[in-house]
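Journal club prep — side note

Before the paper discussion, L.F. wants everyone to see what a predicted structure for a comparable chain looks like in token form. Sequence:
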Amino acid sequence: MVQQHGHLHAKTLTLMNHQALAYRDMDKTEDALQLYREVHDGCKQTLGMQHPYTLASISNLANILFEMDRLDEARPLLEEALERQSEMLGSRHLDTLQTAHSLALLLEEQGEFDKAEPLYIRAYEGQKSSLGPKNPTVLQTAVNLAGLKQAP
């Protein structure tokens, strides 16, 4: 694919993103991180910062850093992704809501419960409205919100 389309072609970047996901599933987090960085850089260069794929690449990069417990690196990326997705996709778009949920999880992990709660509520209300109250994603967000409310 790289020889046919080039390293920065959208199809190549998509395949690289899938490979990063496969590495992630195999617990090869360093390999996944490297590919997610390459995908993000390629998306920025090829598609621009406002493109939905570039916005998704920011979230993917942030989420792998979060999984690696590199919260201080993940947080500004999630904050940037949430801001850009809200502007470009809208505050009720499912990608935006998923990023709000991810940022809430990170903030909760950092002990910033007062900042996490409104993000959980935003994600829950938006997901419930779009997906219905019995959707597994909605239910997981509700569980996380309920757990936060029981935190000390």
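L.F.'s comment for the group: Helices lie at 2-5, 10-25, 29-47, 52-67, 71-88, 94-109, 113-131, 136-149. Keep this in mind when we get to the figures.
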